[in-house]
Amino acid sequence: MSTIRAFALMTLKGLTRRRTFWGIALVTLIALAGIGSIPSYDVTGEGRFMIDMGLFGIEIGSLLLAIGLASNMFPRDRESRSVMPLLAVPLSRTQYVLGRFAGAALVQTAAIMVWCACLGLILAVNGYYVPEAMLPASILLVAEGWFLLAVVLFFSFWTSPPLNAPLTLLLFIVCQMTPAQFSGLLPGAERVMDALRMLLPRMDVFHIKDPVAHRIPVPTAYFLLASVYGLAYTSFMLSLAIAVFRRRDLK
Amino acid sequence: MDPVLRVEGLSKRYPRQSGLGSFQAVSDVSFELEPGGILGFLGPNGAGKTTTMKCILGLLAPSSGRIGVFGRPPASREARRRMGYIPENPDYEDSFTPEEYLSFFASMRHIPWSRGDSARMLGRVGLENWGRARIRRLSKGMRQKLSLALALQGSPELLVMDEPTGGFDPLARKEFRDMILEENARGAACFLSSHILSDIETICSRALILAGGRVVREGSMSELLSSQNRHRISYRKPGAGNAEELVELADLQAAIDRIRSSGGEIEAVGREILSLEEVFLSATSGGEAR
Amino acid sequence: MTAGLLALMLVLGQSPPDGHGHGTDDAHGDAAIDSAEFGSDRHLHPPGEENHGTEWFFSQPWATPERWRFMARDSVVLASAAAGILMLSGLRRRK
Known about the structure:
The complex is a heterotrimer.
Chain A lengths: L1 H15 L2 H19 L10 H23 L2 H8 L2 H6 L4 H33 L8 H23 L4 H16 L2 H5 L6 H10 L9 H5 L6 H27 L5
Helix pairs in contact in A: 1-6, 2-3, 2-6, 3-6, 3-7, 6-7, 6-12, 7-8, 7-12
Chain B lengths: L4 E11 L6 E12 L4 E5 L6 H8 L7 E6 L7 H5 L1 E4 L11 H11 L6 H10 L15 H13 L5 E5 L7 H17 L2 E5 L3 H7 L2 E6 L2 E7 H5 E12 L3 E8 L3 H10 L3 E9 L2 H11 L4
Parallel strand pairs in B: 3-7, 3-8, 5-6, 6-7
Antiparallel strand pairs in B: 1-2, 1-4, 8-9, 10-11, 10-12
Helix pairs in contact in B: 3-4
Chain C lengths: L1 H11 L18 H7 L16 H6 L5 H30 L1
């Protein structure tokens, strides 16, 4: 465990020194500030537009971070051959995958938390009430972000970074759809589409922007169960990534 | 005593890039490295040296054959813990510093490590003033020295080195050789692949020559360098000073008789000592199997 | 950037930027409160006051018992599959 921790810290340090990370983090912050400056036509005066749009902006930011951070971690290590001394001596392949994931997940989590805090600040500055459900909402965003990170990491072991990004984006869009919306994509083949949808993750479970924006209490059990679901999917994708990487020859 | 490294019937096939068929990179390679030994690994480009090394390190899975590092599979934690590796043309995450790399590798290896240990190790490999410099500022030779520092961390019992002196100047090469001999004197076994034959000749106790994926010559350095068949006769010609003649073993007696009958005085007869380059060229050009 | 976010929102079926949108997901479950929220009967809530009870939450299609069931079932299945994959790939490598 301490080996994975040390490698995760090394990954974290390396990622925070990349321009990609700071670029995505800053662009998302600017977008959040932009949302804060749009006049709200909200008759209720509760900043619902800001919360809804802000949380959505953070979700997109975490998707971009997952792609930006994880899609070229292994390809870069392989091309620069820096993976050789790592795997030859101190690390096993499982530790490599878990360490890389944990490092990137820490960076992504920190970014999401900072973005959520900024959204809270923007709401407060604009004189709106910061809903209590912002924290659980941001925890679900983290769970969704980790899942996306695991997906990108899995793709990175068998695709190139330029192919990884559209694949992840496609999966992200498709997984937002409810079964009804998904089967509606191909009228006449509902059964096939239903079966296909069952195999894909249900990322719509992480969407609690509406109740948060409308200040509707969401049961704690729902947050917990949705987080567990996200973690279970993340561990499944990571196990696939480890299985692929274990079988891979490093020429 | 059990060997530090045992390779038995190692073969490795790669699929062709076209996707049709495969080609044999290494075929039925077997050898052992005893504790405290230094084994040189020679071969022309494409002979299968790097493939063999990567199989030993657990980076490639052999198609057939067995590899034991300290009696364990190469990818096992125990084998990796006791091994140090210097890769060919090493590269590292260039935003890090050598000190950071040493510190992270020490944590991953569970070795207690301080900044003073880093300074000592970097001083030992000649990077004392570069500990806090970003790796992107280091030259190829300096990165090689960092590899050496990382490989020596924790005093490994086996050092696996793939073309370790490629980026070194002559002085750095000499220092490297001295360091390897120091490590060997400490008890570390060394497995060294290099195209620089003088390095192998100077520091290795045994050598193995690979060509076309097969072992074509193997033995102790003295066995390899002394020709089994060719002999050198040194003699004094009457009224014409000293002379030498190289003859095959089958013709040795006839040559001695001829020199004596012409009035020559035999001074010495001995096996011809070849250079490692001559041995390498004769072994790899003829494709002669051991 | 904001225009980009708006376009993405439309693609992904997010709620429009008015105060009471519930997303396309929620369209079916809102019949009971629609009249209260939209049209001439629109009302104002003081900031900080909860708008609805948990009844509203459970009337949403994404909070139906079916969703709770599949989240629990899939979590168990996925976690077991992950453990199985790790074990099998480990055994295969050791061989």
